[in-house]
User: What shape does this take?
Amino acid sequence: MSVCRLPRLSGVRVSVILVGLLCSASLRVGAAEVASWPRFHGPKGDNISTETGLLKQWPAQGPKLLWTAKGLGKGFATVTVSDGRIFTSGDVGDDMVIFALDLDGRIVWQAKNGAAWTQTGPHGSHGTPTIDGDCLYHENAHDEIVCLDTKTGGKIWGLNLRSEFRGAGDGFGRAESLLIDGDRVICSPGGATAMAALDKKTGRTIWKSPTAKEPAGYVSPILAEYQGLRMILTMSSRSLIGVNAANGDLLWRFEHYTARYVANCVTPIYHDGHVFISGGYGLGSVLLKIDVQGQKATVQPVWRSKDLDNRHGGVILLEGSVYGASHFSNHAKWICLDWKTGRKMWAERGVGEGSQCCADGMLYTMNERRKVGLVRPTPAGYDLVSQFTIPEGGEGPTWAHPVVCNGRLYLRHGDRLYAYDVRANER
Assistant: This one.
């Protein structure tokens, strides 16, 4: 094992531990081979990778660890991957810092976006950077949005959601990852403005929605189109809200929260004129049908289920079934629900409650205590094929969502990022 150490950057020492001979060119990934994962939960926001040719079973000790990057600060942000670079964020000292790494795990640049989150709840960065061409967009926990050059980290523009829109976040700090819709950046100020669209080149306001009469939630918005109406969906503090993507008109507000613990953290799923939402602490899940009338729309519940009360690990729709970890319900087991009926197909312990992503028909699950599992999901049963535990050293729970991109599995824990080779064959 060789160790490559970087110089001190802005007071932060970063070391990259390389397994084998990663520093040699033979193991580097060429630019032509690089896939893209440009925002939280991927290009479509569904957390499903289109990659194939991945391992269907791991060795007993887990897939090959290519490298470990250290010095990324405290945080729960996962990674985005674009144009041969990896991006994430972390709190370093008093600052929230955005990092760009190359595909060998070496830091290329780092740039500040406001202050670290040291208030209510676990300390650390929340939002994952969004990449669009040569621009990076990031929202920190303290209302600050910044646009940076992906090549250099240089600042292009920035604004504050509270001062610009009289925005209001919830008590644990903002956790939204921004959405790009054509030439617009979509954000959720909350408070006096439910959502807003910004010119992605300048930050100028294009439209802003009326208030939903509540703070923003901890969810990243998604796009949906049904019967000719383009919509943007997100969870505010207490509700699912939908707005008209063309002008920001507020289409609906559907309450979904538990007074015991208000925390909407789960990105909705849109499919075929329906929206699925879920919440932890016993709240459960709802499938809603969208009714479109011209440029207006409403939603009505199709079914409700207490079986899947996902807290913040995310849910995935795959071939007619919804997969995710429960929280209070079913004793934090992994759950499969039928999309159309809400029927519980199974409940299994697996690696324990946590987060997930999907690639090549398999679920990559990670619990809150470093254990990772490879699952072959079907409505008929739960098949935990392989599992391993990532190395010790990172602080706090493992809450950052896994990412599979370009044959690699990226796992974040505290100030560390691990890159595993999950390709079935050498490329």
